[in-house]
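=== RUN LOG ===
request id: a7f3
mode: sequence -> structure
chains: 1
length: 83
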Amino acid sequence: VYSMTKPITGMAAMMLVEDGRLNLDDPLSKYIPAFKTMTVATSPDTSLATRPATTPITIRMLLTHTAGLGYSINVKGPLLKEY
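=== RESULT ===
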């Protein structure tokens, strides 16, 4: 079964950009405050150790899948056990 959630979400985001209600370079935390203080896994294959992220996740990163958020289908090691 093919899901259309990604293209529909992308189109909705672009409509908000066109209307001036969303900026691709806005930090995600502007809309979801829980993403304000993010951390980065330092050795994801072997431990859950983290360090503070040096840049915030942006809307652009979410739409291009470059935010660094993992999915249970492509994660391994200790992080997979946490999922």
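=== NOTES ===
The chain has a mean pLDDT of 90.
Residues 2 and 48 are 33 Å apart (CA to CA).
=== END ===
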